[in-house]
């Protein structure tokens, strides 16, 4: 009844409790010899696949052209040597083949024949028993179908086929087709179980032992798997033997049909169980290898090297591909040698890296290529796409990868699969990658000179070469709180205003009414004060749809100058955020640094309505929230009398400070959980108290994709 059910529980109870399985275990007395059965299994698989797969072909073609020759075995890339294995095992295989045929003709029961075979193979390991029995069956089964395929074109084959009654059998192929279909299904399951048993034997002992539950559980069931598979082989051999000896008139009894069907179901369940355990074993091995590779990477980055090749080869696992990267300029695959002893910038991102990021990076990269003799052009970029190893790679993902790769002028890996799981772990744990693009800098010896130079790249472009932390510190020392810091490299128009010494209002926000009132009031104040004023709208870091509406209003009403290219707006805010992240990365987020206080104010104002920065030429006069700035302008009559005495700059700034002192705007910073390094705490740039920390879930539908789970500091 357990065989009829064919369930896993039945198999387990058979394996553990039945007298029959004790008998099977009693036949097992290996003498310690190790037989490499992989070549023999490969040969047997080829025989059975070619014979089994050609059954339907023979039935269809026999009436048209009986015995149409099958194509010869394809040439293999490398010839596997079978001679050593066959020299040692051919006698036993022949003996089993004869034993199976003899028992079938003698009417022996399947269990008895199976036990006889296992006793014959008592000194061999379980995997060898199974493969050798399968090889014995392949001798007989392969001969049957070989003759069926060639007897019409070969006289020797024709004579042998007549002896085996093959022509008569094939003439009545119609009624026999269901029987061969059943044999095909059973043989397929036999092969599946055999492969699984052999794979367990091939598991590397250096990474897995019998102590691992999955392996110990599987090995406990291997004897049952071998028994039932050998018994299925005996059943298949019986069918072929009786068919060739008794002819097409031999009818398949109800009991025999039931046995074939039951064995097929039985082996299906056995195979599913073994594959599940095999998958667990592979996962265990994979985990151990990943831990080993991760540890190797950690040690490798702590060592001193003469060049960067060991590091690059560890990060980009070429496997059998000598050219694992693609040259972005030629779109041809090349070797890692092209990066030897060069400054290499690893552009690490997922497949959702934005068009804006790529556009600005490409612009900076191409500008550096124009003057190849300049020091700041002596670096190469390579894209390292990080894909979650737990996600199944799809055709859509492949197309997305190829689309991104095709747009990049720098080097890229040929496929994300060359970035191993341990490397992904290293990138996430050691370089704090959280899906937002980072730029890790390796010097010509492979040392990490910056864990993330993306902020330097956004702020200073190629001028930040060689992108080291020391260079970053040096560049900050050269900077000051001036308008060029905010707009440099973005818009030459504003730089021209700076050169002309004009008053400039740089402003942003998403409130159309505030923008309209602010620009009109500012223009009226400029006219009344007789100062040359220019205004430039720079949008907002988020809410792109609202920004587009503001831009439409500014255009129609001609309220001020603005940036038509959305990438310029994105770059402005990305540079501002990069200034903050640069300081965080350096561990120098000085709450008393005037420049950083002003940058933090701007970033905070962006989260809470409008804002405006007023400068005269390069010199920034005031940086304020939209409410305080607009109030200051509206109250022009209260401070206009101070202009002749203090000058416009000081008069405006003093009154703005009075307004600001009455109502402190709420300050807020948002750090997406993809940002990598997030500060433990921050002080408010307005009142200098420590801000409270919140967790916020955010979905900006107008962004094209959601920005989820930022950590928010607020006061």
Quick recap of the structure?
With 715 residues, the protein is of the alpha/beta class. The chain is 58% helix and 9% strand.
Q: What does this molecule look like?
A:
- It comes from Linum tenue.
- Residues 15-305 form the Sieve element occlusion N-terminal domain.
- Residues 471-701 form the Sieve element occlusion C-terminal domain.
- This is Protein SIEVE ELEMENT OCCLUSION B-like.
- With 715 residues, this protein is α/β, with parallel strands linked by helices.
- Helix content is 58%, strand content 9%.
- The strands form three sheets. Strands 2-1-5-4-3-6-7 form a seven-stranded mixed beta sheet, with no helix packed on it. It has a five-stranded mixed beta sheet with strand order 10-9-8-11-12, sandwiched between helices.
- The protein is elongated and about 125 Å long.
- The two termini are 73 Å apart.
């Amino acid at each position: 009844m357990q065989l009829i059910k064919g369930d896993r529980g039945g198999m387990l109870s058979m394996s553990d409790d039945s007298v029959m399985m004790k008998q099977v275990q009693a036949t097992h007395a290996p003498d310690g010899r190790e037989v490499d059965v992989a070549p023999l299994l490969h040969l047997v698989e080829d025989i059975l696949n070619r014979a089994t797969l050609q059954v339907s072909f023979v039935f269809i073609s026999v009436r048209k052209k009986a015995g149409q020759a099958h194509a010869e075995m394809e040439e293999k890339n490398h010839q596997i040597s079978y001679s050593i294995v066959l020299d040692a095992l051919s006698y036993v295989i022949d003996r089993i083949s004869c034993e199976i045929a003899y028992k079938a003709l003698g009417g022996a029961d399947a269990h008895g024949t199976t036990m006889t075979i296992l006793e014959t193979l008592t000194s061999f390991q379980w995997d060898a028993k199974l493969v050798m029995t399968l090889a014995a069956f392949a001798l007989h089964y392969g001969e049957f179908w070989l003759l069926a395929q060639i007897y019409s074109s070969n006289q020797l084959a024709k004579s042998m086929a007549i002896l085996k009654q093959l022509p008569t059998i094939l003439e009545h192929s119609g009624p026999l087709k269901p029987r061969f279909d059943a044999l095909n299904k059973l043989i397929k399951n036999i092969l599946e179980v055999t492969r699984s048993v052999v794979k367990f034997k091939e598991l590397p002992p250096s990474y897995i032992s019998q102590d691992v539950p999955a392996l110990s559980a599987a090995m406990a069931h291997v004897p049952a798997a071998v028994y039932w598979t050998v018994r299925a082989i005996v059943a298949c051999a019986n069918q072929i033997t009786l068919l060739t000896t008794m002819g097409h008139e031999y009818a398949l009894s109800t009991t025999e049909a039931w046995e074939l069907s039951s064995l097929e179901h039985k082996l299906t369940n056995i195979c599913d169980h073994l594959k599940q355990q095999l998958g667990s074993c592979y996962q265990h091995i994979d985990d151990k290898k990943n831990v080993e590779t991760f540890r190797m990477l950690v040690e490798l980055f702590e060592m001193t090297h003469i060049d960067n090749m060991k590091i690059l080869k560890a990060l980009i696992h070429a496997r059998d591909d000598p050219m694992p990267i693609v040259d972005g300029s030629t779109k041809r695959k090349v070797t890692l040698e092209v990066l030897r002893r060069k400054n290499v910038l690893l552009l690490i991102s997922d497949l959702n890296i934005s068009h804006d990021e790529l556009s600005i990076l490409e612009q900076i990269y191409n500008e550096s290529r124009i003057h190849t003799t300049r020091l700041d052009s002596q670096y190469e970029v390579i894209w390292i796409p990080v894909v979650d190893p737990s996600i199944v790679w799809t055709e859509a993902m492949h197309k997305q990868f190829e689309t991104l790769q095709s747009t990049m002028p720098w080097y890229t890996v040929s496929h994300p699969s060359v970035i191993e799981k341990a490397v992904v772990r290293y990138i996430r744990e050691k370089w704090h990658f959280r899906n937002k693009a980072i730029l890790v800098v390796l010097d010509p010896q492979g040392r990490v000179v910056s864990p993330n130079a993306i902020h330097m790249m956004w702020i200073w472009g190629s001028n930040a070469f060689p992108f080291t932390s020391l260079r970053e510190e040096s560049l900050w020392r050269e900077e000051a709180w001036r308008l060029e810091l905010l707009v440099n490299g973005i818009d030459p128009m504003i730089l021209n205003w700076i050169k002309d010494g004009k008053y400039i209002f740089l402003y942003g926000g998403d409130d159309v009414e505030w923008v309209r009132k602010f620009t009109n009031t500012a223009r009226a104040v400029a006219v009344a004060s007789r100062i040359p004023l220019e205004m430039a709208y720079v949008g907002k870091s988020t809410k792109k749809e609202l920004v587009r509406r503001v831009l439409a209003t500014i255009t129609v009403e001609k309220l001020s100058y603005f940036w038509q290219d959305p990438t310029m707006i994105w770059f402005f805010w990305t540079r501002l955020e990069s200034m903050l992240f640069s300081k965080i990365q350096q561990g120098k987020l000085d709450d008393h640094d005037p420049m950083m206080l002003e940058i933090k104010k701007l970033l905070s104002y962006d989260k809470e309505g409008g804002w405006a920065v007023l400068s005269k030429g390069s010199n920034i006069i005031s940086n304020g929230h939209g409410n305080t700035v607009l109030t200051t302008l509206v109250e022009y009559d209260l401070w206009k009398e101070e202009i002749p005495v203090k000058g416009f700059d000081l008069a405006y700034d003093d009154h703005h400070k009075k307004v600001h002192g009455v109502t402190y705007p709420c300050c807020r910073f948002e750090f997406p959980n993809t940002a990598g390094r997030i500060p433990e705490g921050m002080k408010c740039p307005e009142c200098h108290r420590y801000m409270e920390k919140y967790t916020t879930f955010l979905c900006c539908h107008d962004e094209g994709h959601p920005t989820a789970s930022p950590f928010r500091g607020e006061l």
